[in-house]
Amino acid sequence: GIGTMQQTGALVASASAHRFDHLDSLRKASLTAPPPAVFRHGFRSLPTGVNAKLKVNVKDFHPLGVILGSPMTGSATLEASMQGSLNDLALNGIAEVDRFSLSSKAVDLDLVRSSLTFDLSNLRRVRTLESLHSLLVLRAEQLSVDSLLLSSIQFDHRLVEDSSHFSLSALIDSLVSVDLEGTSQFRPNRIHLNIPRLTVRTSDQTFDNEAPLQLVYGKDGFSFPEFSLRHEAEAITLAGWFDPSGTSDIRFSLENSLLTNLKSFSRHPGFIERVKDFGGIVALNGSFAGSTKTPRFSFDLSAQGTRVGDVVFGQILARCSYAE
């Protein structure tokens, strides 16, 4: 049972890695793009079918952390059942984590009271993702990754062959909540995402998308046409390319933003004290290009009716640019 589950995990991971490795570039479009390479895993089929149930209870991750050389703490349970073979396997179960902490050179991670329910069927060694049907349901009270804190996480993902439906909601750093729902489809050799519903909330504002957000993911990141999030007269607009490990080119704008809402973006008492008396309406247009190591950005800012407490500054115009 455990060996089959390990092989199943390796099968899905290898198929996913194969797909991402063979994505097309978004910036170097080819008129005659080659067909996607067919995934074939090297595992042999199981000599006989499997029909088994598995239960694992990890009382303490510390010994595993000692073996791997990264400090770990926490406890977890896993229950799963499997039927079939590596030519046609069904796997379902639930993994529950009371608490898990990992500290390494790459990342510091802390997970509190989470559960992952999974149901996979039609698992095959050849064309694994093209035939796979799966349902993943993740719930987590809290997830901390380095300095980023996510709370009240709910993620659902249903995959049927090359198409999926997903939803996600979470509270970010106890300040901003995000709630979205969308679909994805693999069309050789890119992943197309459509997000008709995207809501971002602060303590004072709720921003909703005006039209579905269309994203395309390739080997060099995401591309997205212009889309806007709007709250009454306020609007945030983005468009361009984003490559986390390469070169990006993003245009952004902010319309009719109220300075009185600045205090909603931080819980730090010092920041709130400094901005609590700000007033006025701000408009901003800007761009970001280059990479995180060699960034280039510029923006034009216009503020009307600007004041700090009883001191009125009126109109403020500013232009800024930076390149490295």
Name its key features.
60% strand; 17 strands; 4 helices; mainly beta; 17-stranded antiparallel sheet; 324 residues
Fold blueprint:
Layout: H1 2-21, E1 50-58, H2 62-68, E2 72-85, E3 88-103, E4 108-123, H3 128-131, E5 133-145, E6 148-160, E7 163-172, E8 176-187, E9 190-201, E10 206-209, E11 213-218, E12 221-231, E13 234-242, E14 248-258, H4 269-275, E15 278-290, E16 295-308, E17 311-323
Antiparallel strand pairs: 1-2, 2-3, 3-4, 4-5, 5-6, 6-7, 7-8, 8-9, 9-10, 9-11, 10-12, 11-12, 12-13, 13-14, 14-15, 15-16, 16-17
Give an overview of the whole structure.
With 324 residues, the protein is mainly beta. The protein is 12% helix and 60% strand. It contains 4 helices and 17 strands. It has helices at 2-21, 62-68, 128-131, 269-275; strands at 50-58, 72-85, 88-103, 108-123, 133-145, 148-160, 163-172, 176-187, 190-201, 206-209, 213-218, 221-231, 234-242, 248-258, 278-290, 295-308, 311-323. It has a 17-stranded antiparallel sheet that branches. A hairpin with a 2-residue loop joins strand 8 and strand 9 (190-201). The longest helix has 20 residues, at 2-21. The model has no long low-confidence stretch (mean pLDDT 87).
Summarize the structure.
With 324 residues, the protein is mainly beta. The protein contains four helices and 17 strands. The chain starts with a helix and ends with a strand.
